[in-house]
Amino acid sequence: MILLRRAERSTRYLFLERSSRAQPVSTCSSDSAASEGAASDEVDSFFRQQNSALARLLHLRGLQHGWRLFGELRRRNVVTWNTMLAAHVHHREIVRARELFDGMPRRDVVSWNTMLLGYSLTGQIENARHLFDRMPERDTFSWNIMISGYGRCGWIIDAVHLFEKMPVKNVVSWNAVVTGLLANGEVDWAMEMWSKMPIRDSATLSTVVSGLARNGMLEAAERHLLKADEGDVDAYNTLVAAFGRVGRVDDARRLFEMIPSGCRDGKGSANGFQRNVVSWNSMIMGYVKAGGIRSARRLFDEMPERDRFSWNTMIAGYVQSQELDEAAALLQQMPEPDERTWNLMISGFARSGDVERAQRCFERMPHRSAISWNTIIAGYERVGEYRAAMSLFSRMLASGVAPDGHTLSSALGACAGLASLRQGAQVHQLVTKRVAVDTPINNALVTMYSRCGSLTDARRTFDSMTTRKDVVSWNAIISGYAQHGHAEEALRLFSRMEEEVRPTHITFISVLHACCHGGLVEEGRQCFDSMARDHGIDPRVEHYAALVDLLGRHGRLEEAMGIVGGMPVPPDRTVWGALLGACRVHRNDELARIAMAALAAVDPAGSAPYVLLCNMHAGVGRWAEAAEVREAMEQQGIRKQAGYSWIELQSGLHVFAAGDKSHPLALEILATADSCSRAIRDETHAGDLPCIQPHSS
DNA sequence: ATAGGGTTAG
Description:
- InterPro entries: E_motif, PPR_At4g14850-like_plant, PPR_rpt, TPR-like_helical_dom_sf.
- This protein is mainly α.
- It has a domain at 645-697.
- The strands form two sheets. Strands 1-2 form a two-stranded antiparallel sheet.
- Strand 3 (644-649) and strand 4 (652-657) form a beta hairpin.
- Mean pLDDT is 84; it is low at 1-40 and 687-697.
- It binds one DNA strand through helix 3, helix 5, helix 7, helix 9 and helix 11.
């Protein structure tokens, strides 16, 4: 790399001369120029073989192994450099690709095109444009790469503009611009362009069928397909997959049956119109999507030949139906599971909560990409094992695999879970350095800052977002204000939100919590009522729990009980728990007994009713009763999980459990907590507060 | 060794 950097410095401002042959970039590499000129046919053929060996190696073993062979070849031949460059682009290693590109002793138009492609595939279309404008020469590939790149990045006007400016268009250019228009929802424009196409090939039909299907126009797609009647199996496959994707498995099957099977009589058709492995895979995928795992398996067993896609789709199906043993059984039968197979298994185990098994798969796989790391990190993050998630994240960084947006979102989620502002801010640094900051990343940052206690940073991130704020962004910031007790600001943001995006059920949970913590009982009540009425969102059990909490906490116990009694869904432990908590604060023994019995019924193993009842007795000095409850609890083998709180300060991480006095400053901390508790009690007249209990044992 | 259309993983 040092060598490449030096080369980069010497060549940065030199431009290639216009030529169809590779040119030396720097005058000091005259030896390679000379050898290039003198290359005999035998030498050329030797390098061709070496280069295809390099390409194979890169394909099979990844970049690390390729480097070795590359090192021996690189001084000789521009194709070698291009092979390596293409491999980096293929792996989306754009920074390394650029380093390589800058360090190349010579470049031809393929080198430039490959670099354009790299930027276009990683969404950095401005960088691609910058290079495109400075290219010493352009060919049709260059223009086509830019047109499809603009289309992919959503800059459809620029794509069309470039297409019109392009001197010599080929069929790929036309297909690319039609694809771009369809991918950006410009159906009419696309079809107009399509009708003007001077040349079409087999990809044209697939382009239109797929584009229409992706715009939800499945019937129009089918009309086009049948009208063209080219017997193009790829186009049929597109539609089989498209019907499958939206769950219309019968339509998918109908199309699938229209493709000649061609395997029994060996007839097929003259132009090769017969089912291929993709047809079968697409059909299997349709069944998998529709939950028809048995039908999928039947096809899988029936199909004449299977490829990696078939195996992986089938395994994905079992993973999705949570039949992980079946998935593992198929994994056993595969001759060579590939990276995707392992990733599927990892995500399957992780999603089922079995992160240990997920990690065993992770450790077994030979080559881990960013996706593998992301899958296992997200798995740990999702089950709340934030420390494990962060330690894998460090391992990933150390292993040299570049983190992407998915990685950093998960890492931010783990920091949020740990409430670790310090680590969160470090990940934020990586975000600004390493990835394009899109909406999901911004959302993760807002959540992280708010959960780590820095509402100011959360708000700053939210306000300075340059990408579109989606419903998750709004939910994140509203929930932040809710958790920090700023009910008015949460409600203000909620009204602003309603002007831009549709709230979801998650929004209402945050708003209800905000009202609860801010004492805005009436507003909360109205908000709950407006959910179904104005927004068409039926309250779920979580909303009922929040409403009961809101009413109960503010002393409206009968009203809360009325809500519980009238619920269209059975109240669960969160609802009864909220009611019980309220009974305790407002000392309503009678209702507490009802709630406690109900809670014990819906959650027999839970300790909450016992603990609360015990504390109620203890709170008014009924020690014998308190002891009785405790005994009953022990007899039934119910144990309270110790609750922990922690805070991260300059001095490190401080962890506390109830009644735990092991901290060196325990006495001072408890005294401060106590005085806070008193101050709040005086301020709010809220009876005794369940949240701070330095005296509980 | 580089461009457009088809099926799987975060």
